[in-house]
Design a protein that fits this description.
Length: about 160
């Protein structure tokens, strides 16, 4: 699987308004069950007990800091009528070799397919960019699998560029 590391300046990402009719707020450990369901729906995986268990387990590891150091406000979700429909998970210091240990990294951005193309992913990126600026950071990075062409288009549109670090 080929991956690209991409990076963008936070100031360019932060100036986006929130779409109406959606609540955007910090995710906590109590949201792990809803996040696990969202993960299955967003990645269009079969909805099985095994898939739900695996998604829940991986999300617990993310909250525990196995994939990088989370902050209290670095996981953000979007809700519509009480249902979690999108989330962005960001850490600092992910464990892969080429990562810049000082730059916040998007581990995952997931949106329920029924809610895509409504500006929700862009609003979540803008929200996390504003939070990262409050932490004193200047940029945001992510790793993108080559087969995610729709995600690549979004990140290109938002000003993310390929980075060596």
């Amino acid at each position: 699987m080929t991956q690209r590391t991409m990076k963008a300046q936070l100031q360019a990402l932060a100036d986006v308004e929130r779409p109406e009719n959606y609540e955007i707020a910090t995710l906590t450990r109590q949201d792990i069950p809803a996040l696990a369901v969202l993960n299955i729906v967003a990645y269009e995986a079969p909805y099985t007990a095994q898939a739900l268990f695996e998604a829940t387990d991986e999300l617990r590891l993310i909250f525990d800091g196995v994939f990088g150091i989370p902050r209290d406000d670095s996981f953000v979700g979007a809700w519509h009528e009480g249902t979690l429909i999108a989330a962005i998970l960001v850490v600092v210091g992910p464990p892969w070799d080429e990562a810049d240990t000082n730059t916040p990294v998007v581990l995952d951005l997931m949106v329920d397919p029924e809610f895509r193309r409504r500006g929700i992913a862009t609003a979540l990126i803008a929200e996390i960019a504003r939070r990262c600026m409050k932490w004193g950071k200047e940029s945001l990075s992510l790793r993108l699998d080559a087969h995610h062409s729709a995600a690549a288009s979004l990140y290109d549109l938002l000003g993310f560029e390929e980075s060596t670090k």
